[in-house]
Amino acid sequence: MQELTHYIGGAHVKGTSGRFADVYNPATGEVQAKVPLANADEMAQAVDIAAKAQPAWAATNPQRRARVMMKFVDLLNRDMDKLAEALSREHGKTLPDAAGDVQRGLEVAEYCIGAPEMLKGDFTDGAGPGIDMYSMKQALGVTAGITPFNFPAMIPMWMFAPAIVCGNAFILKPSERDPSVPLMLAELMEEAGLPKGILQVVNGDKEAVDAILDHDVIQSIGFVGSTPIAEYIYGRGCSNGKRVQCFGGAKNHMIIMPDADMDKAADALIGAGYGAAGERCMAISVAVPVGDETADRLIEKLVPRIEKLKVGPYTGGNDVDYGPVITAAAKANILSLIESGVTQGADLVVDGRDFSLQGYEDGYFVGPHLFDNVTKEMDIYKKEIFGPVLSCVRAQSYEEAIGLAMDHEYGNGTAIFTRDGDAARDFASRINIGMVGINVPIPVPLAYHTFGGWKKSVFGDLNQHGPDAFKFYTRTKTVTSRWPSGIKEGGEFNFKPME
Ligand code: NAD
Q: Whose CA is nearest to atom 30 of ligand 1?
């Protein structure tokens, strides 16, 4: 059995806590490795190393720091297949989807090559007589990130690429479900020229997270995961005086107007609802057709498409649409929510409950499900299912449809499918959700924009990547300077406005 490590001080380090978690192959249900779960002492060792290494890295000029990112991007491209395979093996998503996971992180690293431009300060020449004023963006020091299982490459890179290029040291606590790719990324960053100790991976669970939350030296924490944990980390991190940004769960609605191209809308829902087994925070889990006639046409288009979906292991060839979910517990939770949908009166139009894959009976596969006539009161509507389950809630008007999305507690992503520019424009303007697609089902912003939801999908103010990341990972210092030619005036004791 493979025993994974931490990556501390530029080396693979065995866990010393004596606690481990099993890492499964979700396609077979077999335990393929064990990952060490760090205690507070192991976390403190990593923090000490980071704190010692960080000042020299912050003093390295931004162009040189950017060059590490440039090289890192090359190495990611070189190792793309290897990374995607390792990712699929632990996560279960298909190989093209795993490569997409790496690619979307790579694009953030690519954006970070522009750090010298992003980190330029402001300067006012002659703010007063003989006085100049300038603002610098300086690194925070030691920063940390806690990431979820569903994007084990992209989300760590969303955090560590901007943190590091800004001159910080970064400690990554990845998901204990799929920790191998984060370890590989840390090795690649060092191969790209990053000094030891600037990017470290400390594996663990709540104990390691609490050690991050309570460590005085750690200045900022980024978190992505479920909403209850996001809320906990935000509360405890902020009360410990840290800068914290936490991104939580989602329930993304797609509104289908009567004038929408129904084939395109159905195709979009298939990819956005069932891709990656629905384990995406930007998955569409609720379809809201406007009017019964629209709903009937949509269901008619969806059913044959869903029945054609091929569910299988990542090794099953290019026509596999999605793989298993992450753990047996995740599968049990999804199936119990499906049962609740049936009990609470929704129509299970496509029933995947008896899905089984020959040769993979112990894998965590869940067949695709489609519910119609779902209502606001049902658990399958209120809760994030994070599985291959699409719920159709019929609305009788556009106002009712937009109201549904606006009243839901989550506000990560949403989409509208229509040919009417006026409806689309109104939707984009009024909706209280952070990322909006117009005839685009998964509107994930590119690296040079920012990613973030609203409402219970986020705790904190700044978004991830793009310009916001450069704000999150730096602090501003403003210097007012005067260089007198000699001491002509003597001391000044009054606080005066600039003349
Ligand atoms: P999770 O909340 O279970 O775990 C996320 C991280 O928190 C992991 O590193 C885990 O080890 C740690 N953690 C778990 N329980 C903890 C506890 N009690 N105390 C402290 N730390 C704890 O989430 P997950 O299952 O890995 O990921 C799926 C969730 O993430 C979904 O809710 C999904 O919507 C969300 N997500 C959100 C975004 C976004 O950008 N908004 C992106 C991806 C995933």
A: 225
Distance 291 CA to ligand 1 centre (A): 36
Q: Does 277 lie in the same domain as 193?
A: no
Is 444 within a domain?
A: no
Three-state SS at 281: coil
Note if 281 is an active site residue.
Answer: yes
Count: domains in the chain: 2
Q: Indicate if the pLDDT at residue 498 is higher than 90.
A: no
Residues 163 and 25 in one domain: yes
Q: Are residues 107 and 66 in the same domain?
A: yes
Residue 53 phi/psi, 5-degree rounding, is -80, -25
The answer to whether the CB of 206 is under 6 A from ligand 1 is yes
**Ligand 1: centre distance to CA 249 (Å):** 8
Q: Tell me: pLDDT of 399 over 70.
A: yes
Is the domain of 274 the same as that of 152? no
Of 157, 209, 279, the residue with max ligand 1 atoms within 8 A of its CB, to mutate for a pocket test, comes to 209
Average pLDDT for residues 450-474, to the nearest whole number? 98
Residues 365 and 461 both lie in one domain: no
Tell whether 69 is covered by a domain: yes
Q: Is the CB of 472 under 6 A from ligand 1?
A: no
Residue 450 lies in a domain: no
Same domain, 84 and 175: yes
Q: Enter the pTM of the model.
A: 0.96
Q: Residue 361: which domain range?
A: 252-438
CB-hemisphere CA count at 13 Å for 273?
27
Which residues, 6+ apart, have CB-to-CB distance to 467 below 8 Å? Answer: 118, 450
What are the tens digits of pLDDT across the range 369-386? Answer: 999 999 999 999 999 999
86 found inside a domain: yes
Q: Which numbered atom of ligand 1 lies nearest the CA of 281?
A: 34
Answer whether 234 contacts ligand 1 (Cβ < 6 A).
Answer: no
Note whether 222 and 350 are same-domain residues. Answer: no
Query: Which among 112, 166, 281, 392 is annotated as catalytic?
Result: 281
| Structure tokens that stand for 496 in this block | 């005066």
Answer yes or no: do 265 and 159 share one domain: no
CA angle 248, 236, 433 (to 5 degrees): 25
Please give the Cα distance from 276 to 98 (Å, whole number).
9
User: What whole-number distance in Å separates Cα of residue 10 and Cα of residue 209?
Assistant: 21
Alpha-carbon gap, residue 344 to 333, rounded angstroms? 16
The CATH number of the domain where 65 resides is what? 3.40.605.10
CA distances from residue 440 to 2, 13, 282, 443 in whole angstroms, order as listed: 42, 44, 12, 6
